[in-house]
Structure formats: C-alpha cells, structure tokens
Amino acid sequence: MPITEISAAPHRIGADFGRDGFVVLPGFFSAERIAEARHRFDRVRVERAGELVVDSRATGRRSFWRDAEDPAVADFKFNDVYLLDATTRELALDAKLTPILEACLGEPAVLCNSLHFEKGSGQPMHIDSLYMTPRSSHGLIASWIALEEVHPDSGPLWYWRGSHRIPLFRFKDGSHHVGPGEQGDWDRYMATELTERGMEPETFLAKRGDVFLWHADVVHAGSPIRDAARTRASIVCHYYRESDARALDYALEPLNGAFWFERLGQPVRVEVSNFSPDGGDFPAERYLRRYPDVEQALRRGLLRSAWDHFREHGAAEGRGI
What we know:
single chain, three-stranded antiparallel beta sheet
C-alpha cells in the first residue's frame, strides 16, 4: 500500500486523495496522544454513562451506556463521544490534520459525528454517502484513527481504490440516499461495477496512531473477524464541508481552523420506569432542548414540568431522551 508522506504539502495530499479516494497518514498521532484519548474514553464511559449513546452490535438495540445489556461482554458502537469529551474533539480536529481535511474537501471541515469501536465493524461493502448523503457532491469525508495495531485476524478495514469515481446509484426517489428495501439494489449494482472495472479490495493493517482518510463514495467494508477474542480499537469521524454544514440547523464551534457540530446526541427511547418516581434523575434540560414544543408549553404554563410531560405523554409518543 503506498504511503503518503505526512511532510507533504496539504495540496499534494489532496491530489492523492482525489486520485485514489483515500490517503494514509502513518504514525500521525504519537503513542502519548493515543493513550490519552483511550484514557479519556474510559473516563467518559464512567462519568457520562447516562449520556453516552451506544448501539449493541449483537442486537441492534440503542441505549445509554448506563442501561446497556451485558456491557462487559457484548460488542458496542459508541456514538458521538466528541460531544462529551474535548480530547476526542482535539484528536478529530488536530491542528495538523485540519489543513489536510480542508485540502481533501476543498473547504474547511466540520466534524459532524464520531464513532468509537472496540472491535472490527464487520460491516458489509458500502459507501458512507448512502446513509449520510451530503448536500453537495463530494461534500463528505471520513477519518479512521487506529488506537492499536491491527491484527489480520481482527477484521481489518477493506477498501476499493478509486471506487469513488464509479457513478452513484440513483434510487427510486431520484436521490443517492438509500431508501427502505433498496440496499440490495445498490449491492448488486456495485458488485457488477467493481467486477467490470477489475477492482479488488485492499487491506489496511494499521499501526497505532495511523490515520486513514477516505472519500464518502469509496467502497469499503469490515473484513471477516477470524479471531473473536481480538480487538481493533479505533475512532471513526465524519466531516462535512463548511458551506453544507451551515445549511443545517446546528451550531458550529470553531477549533483549529475547522468546526464541530454542537448538538444533542442521538435520541434514545427510555421507559418511564428507568427514572425515580419523582423524576429527580430525569434530564429535563436535555429533554426541553430536544423538544421545543414541550419547552414552549412549559413557558406558557400548560405543563408542570418536563418530567410530567415525559411521564404522561412523551414516553408513549416514542420521544427519545
């Protein structure tokens, strides 16, 4: 796998990115920076367990880490730690990384999500723009930060060089965003395109501190995990262009020449019984911020409290916290 020198000018890296659809930055983060990031992640899991949103890879169930089933055994995806932890934000928008992100995007980058993995994703072949479809063409990129050395049996990342140049599939609604029941159509289309173009997957066997940047239209996958006992700890981040991000209803916070979305985490459906009878542990501020209609009713004196709304109406309506 060709390695792009970190010392190269950002525009040179951007050119390589445009040609191949990815770029590798070997040893970009020091062992100390990675150790600090892992330490802070461990602290977040303890100190912010009632806010940290996780998805069980075994059941697909979304919950707060505090309420996760079999947390010591099951495999989880940890969503948007960057919203809870400044160290994660500083890693995702490192001062040396943001000029490279800008060179790849053509505009300043906006960090819009982060995903922590302890094990290989095992995801089938896909492109990110199917699910996070940017407003403008080529307006989304991703980074993969290795928190440890990747073993071949741990399910390393597969990617298809140059696959971002394959014409995007158009779904029934005319868009490039996959709709319900349409994933199989894309799978068949892409399998044919890759075969006709003679494109084969390459494997990224990362060292700790390596960074892999890829275009949102590059085909990639989590290769099969041959040893379930092995971890493959990593952080994945996605970035929009600044102009696209400003069209969305989120606040942008500046950091190191780029920005990050200041927003609520993913909503989680929680039973009323998860909270104390008096609602003393109910996150009222977060609930009101998520649902302006409830906040407005409270201001008008139509509700006694956010807790009363959730207990009497919100939970039954499926409103997440």
